[in-house]
Amino acid sequence: MTVVGPFGLSVRDQALEADVQTGLAGVEAGLLDATKSEVPFITEAAQHLVRAGGKRFRPLLVMLAAQFGDPYAPGVVPSAVVVELTHLATLYHDDVMDEADVRRGVDSANARWGNSVAVLTGDFLFARASHILADLGPEAVRIQAEAFERLVTGQILETAGPRDGRDPVDHYLDVIAGKTGSLIAVSMRFGTMMSGADESVVDILTQYGERLGVAFQLADDVLDIASDTHESGKTPGTDLREGIPTLPVLLLRAQAAAHGRQEDLDLVELLDGDLADDDRLAEALRLLRAHPAMEQARRDTVRYAEEARATLVPLPEGYAKSALLELCDAVVHRAG
Asked: How many Cβ atoms from other residues are within 10 Å of residue 310's Cβ?
């Protein structure tokens, strides 16, 4: 049994392990090739986050999905490069919007070179992803375009906030379905489609990816509050300090509005205050960790992970299916 990929995913079959590792190595080489430019500065900026590492979660999903067809089909690795390039491009843009200083343990591109370079580098990565897509055929281009539209729509919805009368929690779930679920769903779709899997399998694994993506983001929400730096790879309370709405906070606000408990109202007031102060942030984290909203957020994470698991039932048993089932468990484990 070998551990590969994010969350310590266990691969219990040597052939599957070899396929996944070979595929991921190909993706790594493809990322470096796709981010080269005749202009050395562009290469440096474009490869900044590639060389910083990362989970490569989406390429891993492409490799696992391809096991339901021909994992050696020529379009599998390039499609995995496309989804990772797209993901990386969004990180460059997100860091500008969030005014982030650090990404993956290194200076963010905007902190190092300024916002203009970071935005344009993200655009460069989108362009390179499109170039690869053109060789994968018009259907791949259409699928990627639809996913990218959903991703951008999710980001716009997050920026605009819920319209009057809309439940903020429902709004937030729509946001993360677009921002996170869409590209993870495409990872599963490309892996199955490029490997020549049956259309029914393509549909099943696309649905799986959509639900797993939402569970993945909800687990991140819980981790931002519940974990220490070693577990999450980032400082606890980062989202709180930046005022980013996440599920536990939205659930707290809903409970405060519905029941008017003084302790809930006091915590909301604390969160709405200046959390740049380390002591105030530590107090907010302590109170949130003990609040029922955290347990509800964990239950919601489990629910989406279980929905992802349920979509896999019609698939034949095998090591690839077992690995996808284990990913559902791993996502839940991250949320405690």
From this structure: 13
